[in-house]
Design a protein that fits this description.
The chain is α/β, with parallel strands linked by helices and 309 residues long. The protein is built from nine helices and 14 strands. The mean pLDDT is 92.
């Protein structure tokens, strides 16, 4: 099976490639803008004889791809704020590339990395299968650009029901290989432990559901194995975790020190979300069954990271 990866320099893409390299004999073609960086990565992982690195200009509708997985996008809130409205152009450019391929090769499958941000709203409660997306159309803000770019892409996919397109809405993701300088709750915690600093946080007991590489790989595999379909799926684990349960676990297991500070500034590229996760578990209908809770996944991943330092 040949799988084309768009946005192969992203950490979530590389984690998936590494997961599959251990268990599946898939032929990956890795597309990215920074070819030098990609080649350096596959060499460091001893994958240069197994997978091919390609420029986007080499993506060809006449080549054989069984699956296209599109990871192009912004995975860091600080970067999302910086890129601003360009997210529309970036999202559409590579999405259209994949869709044009499917129109000429309808036997292929396309997996698009979307986001839980498509629901909009303030996430006072977790979303579910009946949640209606919310966009304050008369008061749009820069924090809405990412949401709207993903929402537009998903709408375009549903308008092509004859094509096999699955949108995966990622809410929270953590990997022991990701950039710990990125601005997320969990990476801020990791840096505090590493630098022996006190982690300062607000009193809000937010709840998150962090999927980690093993369960993300399980979800992708389920989609690959399932029949052709056109739908959107929310990422989820066996159970989410609250911020203070997470902090308590890291305090007892890894020596984290933290304190509540009402005056701290938090980066929210897609808006403040108290319960940023989903109880919409329809992915079970395609055979997905998570193996870890959010807390288990995080502590295991952190353990791997700590051992590598």
């Amino acid at each position: 099976m040949k799988i084309a990866i768009l946005g192969a320099t992203s950490q979530i893409a590389q984690d998936l490639i590494l997961s599959f390299s251990k268990n599946q004999n898939y032929g990956f073609l890795l597309f990215g803008r920074n070819i030098e960086l990609l080649e350096k990565w596959i060499n460091s992982e001893n994958l240069s004889k197994k997978y091919q690195v390609k420029e986007y200009s080499e993506f060809d509708n006449h080549q054989k791809y069984d699956v296209i997985i599109n990871f192009v996008g912004i995975g860091d809130p600080a970067k999302a704020q910086k890129i601003g409205s360009d997210i529309f152009k970036i999202t559409e450019q590579y999405d259209d590339m994949a869709l044009e391929y499917l129109k000429q090769n309808k036997e292929a499958k396309y997996i698009f990395l979307s986001s839980g941000a498509v629901y909009g709203g303030n996430y006072q409660e977790p979303v579910n299968k009946d949640t209606v997306a919310t966009v304050d159309i008369n008061n749009l803000k820069s924090t809405d650009w990412y949401t709207l770019a993903k929402l537009y892409a998903e709408a375009k996919h549903r308008a092509l029901p004859d094509l096999s397109v699955v949108d995966i809405r990622v809410f929270n993701y953590f990997s022991h290989k990701q950039n710990m300088d990125a601005r997320f709750l969990i990476t801020d915690i990791v840096r505090a432990i590493k630098n022996k600093e006190v982690f300062k946080t607000s009193a809000d007991n937010i709840v998150r559901d962090f999927i980690t590489p093993p369960d993300f790989c399980n979800l992708i595999q389920a989609i690959i194995d399932f029949k052709h379909t056109n739908t959107a799926l929310d990422c989820y684990t066996k159970s989410p975790v609250s911020k203070f349960d997470l902090l308590s676990e890291f305090e007892s297991k890894f020596g984290l020190k933290y304190e509540i500070d009402e005056n701290i500034s938090i980066i929210n590229a897609t808006g403040v979300k108290l319960n940023y996760y989903s109880t919409n578990d329809i992915a079970k209908n395609i055979g997905y069954k998570p193996k870890k809770t959010s807390l288990d996944g995080i502590t295991h991943s952190y353990g791997y990271w700590a051992c590598s330092q």
